[in-house]
Write the structure tokens for this entry.
Amino acid sequence: MEKKGCLGIPRALMFYRYFPFWRTFFETLGWKVMVSNGIRQKEKIIYFEDSCLPMKLLVTHAIQLKDKVDHLFIPRLVSLHRTYMMCPKFRGAPDIVRLATEGSGSIIDETIDLRKGGLSLFQSFLKIGERLNASKSESKKAFQEAEKSFSKFQKEWMDRINRLPTRQLFEIDIPIPPAGRKAPLRVAFIGHPYNLFDTDINKDLLTLTKRLGMEIMTSDCLSEKEIDREVSDLSKEIYWSSGREIVGSLFHFLSGGVDGVVFLTSFKCGIDALLQEFIKRRLKVQGGSSTPLLLLSFDEHTGREGLTTRLEAFRDVMEEQKRLHIAKCKIM
Amino acid sequence: MKVTFPHLGSMHIFCKAIAETAGIPYLVPPETSRKTLTLGVLHSNESICLPFKIILGNFIEALQMGADTIVMVGSGPPCRLGLYDLVQKVILEDMGLHYRWLTIPPRLTWQAIWKNHEETKELRKELTAKNILLFPYGLWMGWKKMMVCEALEQLAMKVRPKEPKKGETQKRFKKALSWVDGAKNPKTLKEAARKGRIFLQEMEQGRSCIPLKVAIVGELYTVMDPHINRGVEQKLGELGVEVTRTSWFSTHILRSLRSNKADRASERIRFFEASKAYLGYDVGAECNVSVGEAILRSKEGYDGVVHLMPFACMPETTASGILTKVGKDCNIPILTLILDEQEIEGRIQTLLEAFVEMLEWKRRVA
């Protein structure tokens, strides 16, 4: 099929969950998908607004791409769940990018709000297809293809995250290498997907973790039911889907199944700041947990060396905890 | 039972009036001070917004003084205000303080009323029939007092730039508020309102000048509470500026009751419409209104806009990014003040002085 043009997707925010879906959709429609590169040595973060690091990176990535592509794809993600919603910053993100790029390029900013009903995702993508001059049937076909490849991607997630380098996690055409030696420790990584997988934010923490002999689990491995069970008894419902996922999966993993839990946040993230306090206090009130918990907060000044030290220390704590646990079992 | 509620501008007068008239025992937390803030900061973390810390401080102080029931206004998504109670409850529990909690639902839905019903089950046992009978009257009385307080504050904002002696208006305004606060029945309230009005109007004869006009926009807590914004309203007034704001406690109550009849509500809709040039969706809380108000104020001949927000506030961070652009496009100076627990009163004074000087210069040149 001849290429219709080039469509740019900034490597930021929810790219780190839905890229395989977006990519299949646009490629089936016959568009070439271009992804921004991220911060290399020479490039600097562009500070258009005083927001959290992930938001600043979105602006930076969008500016990197804007002259190379025909359209920028920055959907207005209001809600990605039938009841819960996204952080309010996502609602203004396309507008911020439009101002930062001085309106020079075309931005596809279709609203995605899953609270409107089961078909709303499909309808949003139909509208996106319309903006790209695709017919209804073409869009429908592309949407089905995208769903197919996304569910395949989700199934392979656990293997993908443990065997591929972090930068290639979301490239669906890269084959997964065979399993290596089994890692002695299992660690759950909790946080917003962009904090977990954006190497510009976390200095490629995941590769570091794997090198230290740990197997990675994320909240994607849990079903919605398992998460709901942990948060259903709260006095008030957490209405951000990401916040709910973080609190639910954190308490799930802390109650067993893994050797340690790492919670990644970025500085100035409103949701994380509030929930972090909640998690700490609730754990304390409930009498603590035997699973070690490490809290890492990132901003643009975070250095790799400090991270390594903290992670190594955390590994030692986990090993000690495991040894103690085994010793206890033997006595009993 | 002893009921307590947070300070929020003159909102405590409203809550106090309800409790007093209905005969429910209450305790007004000590006036927000450095100590209140320190307590709030100690028991939260750096990126949590300032209103959270101040309200938490208010509660801790009130509980330590013997209050046992907290009444808190609720709010909805997507801003963090809606989850304050979830987190504050755990923090108070962790501190070993005993309390009962009552959230006033932000919107009157069946679900909210049901939850409220559950929460008040215990409390209602302690109330006498007289308390319950007098409650609607208390609400009415509180509302009346609220309206008087807001009218007085608006008047104070208007006359402050013309006061003969710096700080005189603030003194008189405080005094007038205490009269209103002390009024026990509709008759004395009416009298207090009249007296306060005349008392404040005397200030207008001080100087004759055309003051600069500045609109204050931003996150509602920071705009409404002088303890949180370090008296920006008063400081600007004393620098000879007539300050306007559209965010009042009653505005937000009317908004949550979905009453669009009031002028203020229709004004909000006007602001919201204006923001559509920059924002394609309702970001939440006050973001769109802040942006829209700044745009419209520039067309209404205002000299400048002061945008207030707590550090790390989610919706207002978006607004501040957009406002930098609005300022350029509409040719109106916008000063964004980001507030947190740091002692920045002196810095705010300097910033405001420079801002006002710049506005004066701009007016002279134009």
Observations:
- The interface with chain A takes residues 44-49, 52, 76-80, 82-83, 85-87, 89-91, 93-94, 278-285, 287, 312-315, 317-318, 320-322, 324-325, 338 of chain B (CB under 8 Å).
- Strands of chain B lie at 3-4, 69-73, 100-104, 212-218, 241-245, 304-310, 334-339.
- Chain B has three domains: 3-127, 141-206, 209-366.
- Chain B has a mean pLDDT of 88.
